[in-house]
From TrEMBL:
SMART domains: VWA (SM00327)
UniProt record similarity statement: Belongs to the calcium channel subunit alpha-2/delta family.
Protein name as annotated: Voltage-dependent calcium channel subunit alpha-2/delta-4
InterPro entries listed in its UniProt record: Ca_channel_alpha-2/delta, VWA_N, VWF_A, vWFA_dom_sf
GO molecular function, one term: voltage-gated calcium channel activity
GO cellular component: voltage-gated calcium channel complex
Keyword tRNA-binding in record: no
Keywords on record: Calcium, Calcium channel, Calcium transport, Disulfide bond, Glycoprotein, Ion channel, Ion transport, Membrane, Metal-binding, Signal, Transmembrane, Transmembrane helix, Transport, Voltage-gated channel
Predominant location: membrane
Cross-referenced CDD domains: vWA_VGCC_like (cd01463)
Amino acid sequence: VKSWADAFGGELYSIVTKYSGSLLLQKKYKDVEPTLKIKEVDGLELVKKFSEQMESMLRRKVEAVERLVEAAEDADLNHEYNSSLQFDYYNSLLINEKDENDNYVELGDEFILEPNEHFNNLLVNTTYSDIQLPTNVYNKDPDILNGVYMSEALNPIFVDNFERDPTLTWQYFGSSTGFFRLYPGIKWLPDENGVISFDCRNRGWYIQAATSPKDIVIVVDVSGSMKGLRMTIAKHTIITILDTLGENDFVNIIAYNDYVHFIEPCFKGILVQADRDNREHFKQLVDELQAKGVGTVNKALTESFKILREFRDAGQGGLCNQAIMLITDGAVEDYEAVFEKYNWPDRKVRVFTYLIGREVTFAPNVKWIACNNKGYYTQISTLADVQENVMEYLHVLSRPMVINHDHDIIWTEAYMDSALFASQAQSLLLMTTVAMPVFSKKNETRSHGILLGVVGSDVPLRELLKLAPRYKLGVHGYAFLNTNNGYILSHPDLRPLYKEGKKLKPKPNYNSVDLSEVEWEDQEEILRTAMINGETGYLSMDVKVPVDKGKRVLFLTNDYFFTDISGTPFSLGVVLSRGHGEYILLGNTSVEEGLHDLLQPDLSLANEWIYCITDIDPDHRKLSQLEAVIRFLTGEEPDLECDEELVQEVLFDAVVTAPMEAYWTTLALNMSMEAESGVEMAFLGTRAGLMRSALYVGSEKISNR
């Protein structure tokens, strides 16, 4: 068996070396060695440089949003509210729609739409924004008309921002009255039931920008009187409140009747981060609640105040706002003592009360609780009221920010932009949103703290990662980003989609995948902790890396370099693998020499790499990377921006590998048909992304197409 194996191995080796020409290639590289510079990569310096570039790119996005906020606040200051305002605006559902007499319908004038590569080839209008309204908001409500009329002032700013920074994508203003102004304007399509359910006020970016981080205890009455419809409304209310919470908030839910019980016994006496997994877990438990017994609210309130106080004193939780949400159909007993003991006089915890059902007997008591604890009282008698009434608490929580005019800049975790265009699911891109609140500056209402809405813009993470190009990181090297909650924004092992039949769908928790799930070798969480704290540093680990879609595994030692991106909650990590990954070859080749070899027919460049920036100027979009590089070198397109270091490496590789073509061609000519059938093709790739190939058989005979 051994001699068979040796013979087989020897035979295979000689065929492969002969037809691939690997020995010739080694010799060619050896010949140029004296003229080469070999440079060691300094990982820390690299990660700091990338982080600075990312920071300045993100700063440009923030500046664009700041200009919009300023314009919106000034427009509001100069706008007099007019309840009988008549105003025709572009409604994104009705644009370009005609009635039976072939006239445009009201609010639906002609709106020119053209496909634009920069916006995933959607049909857009880059001179105007248009307005989207959820189906449950009346499109000619005076509040809407005034808000839309006032926010017309944003159009020129949208256009100007886009001209100043062509890497900007969607820019928008979500109003607290419910309309959503989106630039560039698009045609919005309803779902199969003819409904538009997108409400900007429920989106993560809106809620995060409108309020600060919060610790919330939801207290729900499950006594016998809550049976039936009231219980259904109460459950829906809790779920709606949970949907307004995000990774920066902390929550727990207490149900009370004769005694107090935490609906998740494991979370007894604590608050948990309101991330996706915990919210979904709570929703399942809320669904199982049963109404029975007699309600005693005092113990539940006492318990809630205790938890909030412990967290506040220990410096845990959101360290910002604290609130209790009381959901009940009436409170009878004497609860003043509880507030006196735990919340007065500083009233550090706000109490919001939701009175469920049509009964009004207990309304004064329930209202008293809210009004004496800096809260807000609403009565919810039908399921349809839930959404609007729950949203009210956000305005109360945002009031201090409004009065002080704290414009906090918010960065959301990564999410897919398909939510925006559920109607036209395009290639799914991971985005992060930068958002800022817009406040009313009018003197007479300054103390009321009126939030007008939120301005935001999307940043595709792909654009950020272009600033940390693969070729600078060597073989097996990569860059990744994560947030201060430990979640990944972007990582080569983050696989957010799964296949259902033929369709690709996002996995339910794709935006809360923890760093420890992809860098699982970091058992002690040293890397994770340092990155969450925004430290700058270095660490090395032995890792196993799957290649070829998981068919094989490599054992490598990787060096991790990380730092924070200042002005954002993000951290950047760069990974270099020991050995090949730590060095860069710099060859010096003249343009004339290299160009001649680049023009050979069987040569190509990695098209997903960026040698030249072709996606900003419309004239360059049709060029492939190879065409762009050639035009750059010949000087045909003087305004092309290219990465000179990478182009230099490509020229060097083109010259060194040029003799391979002749070698392969000679072999192909001398091949007799039968002698060594089975060799079909030879190819090579270099670390600058250059590829060459040669066929040994007619293209129709290739077995693997």
